[in-house]
Amino acid sequence: MIQAVLRALGKSKGRVTAVFAASHPSADAQVAYLRANLDLPIWLFTTSEPSAETAFHCERVVIATSSLALWLQAQRELWPHQVALALTAWDGSPGAWPLKLAPFTVPFFRALIRNKDGGYFPGTPRMVALHARLGLQRKLSDAGVRRRELLLGAALWIFAFIAQWFSPVSRFAYRRIHGNVHRPLSIPPEGDGIAHYRYKSREWDAHAILELLRHSGARYLFFQRNDDTSDPTELLAAFRHPDTFAVSRQHAVRAWRKLLFATAPFRALQPGEISRVHAPVSPAMLVDSAKLRAL
Fold it and tell me: Contact, 114 vs 26, CB < 8 A?
């Protein structure tokens, strides 16, 4: 009876699955998920060229630059088939709404949605509402964090502006924050070798750094940004002085700019030159592990 109704509606061909993707990483992930969980032909509708491997595992690949045109073509081509499952991605990327809503417009309306964390949930009213609620909560939380960061940044900017002209203000604030206890720098070195900590942009993982300090057994900890290719052994010569805490490669000049803390030398250093600054911030920094643990 059901098959007769389907044939009467024009759905006389076999079962397939459909993937709607606005980027090739999204297409790769969704096709890989279907291959691992269902043994049915995969039809891919995407606005960008998929990888060769993904295209190889799809029975049909349809590419169009317009998401609306792609949705219309998918409606025409999928209508004769029984679509067992339709996938899309709600990963926070902007636009491409015809593709994001496409599984809800393809009979039999069996939608599966990939979230921004790489998980999947069924496109039922309850799960869609839950996803929307969690997304709203996350946005409100992010907005709150951003607001606090902006307020803190504004307060620090005002403080820095005032402290440039009135040094007693900065000294008073420094004493209030850090106290008057002086820690000796003459801490005996411990361990051997160099432990590497790579990071992206300014994202440092405090827990991972503490684990390195506790268990690596290294004498030095080398903080290195992902795009940096420096050799830390070139910085070891500066540690001949027992008071040295951290050494970095120069990546900027301070010139005549008024700064609360000197993070770079006044001018470009010549080969072999070393300049002492308050905060040697750079994409490549070598730190004495024993002194860092003491702090």
Answer: yes
pLDDT at 157 over 80: yes
Amino acid of residue 89:
A
Report CA-CA distances (Å) from 294 to 59, 121, 186, 281.
61, 48, 11, 20
Given a contact cutoff of 8 angstroms between Cβ atoms, the answer to whether 31 and 58 are in contact is yes
Task: Determine the pLDDT at residue 264.
Answer: 80
Residue 7 confidence (pLDDT) above 70: no
DSSP letters, 216-246, are S--SEEEEEETT----GGGGGGGGGSTT--E
Q: Computed from CA positions of residues 144, 146, 152, 155, in that sequence, does the dihedral angle turn out positive or negative?
A: negative
- Distance between the two ends of the chain, CA-based, in angstroms? 77
Distance (Å, rounded) from C-alpha 261 to C-alpha 295?
19
Ramachandran angles phi, psi of 270, nearest 5°? -85, 160
Q: How distant, in Å, are the alpha carbons of 23, 27, 100, 235, 260 from that of 51?
A: 10, 9, 21, 43, 50
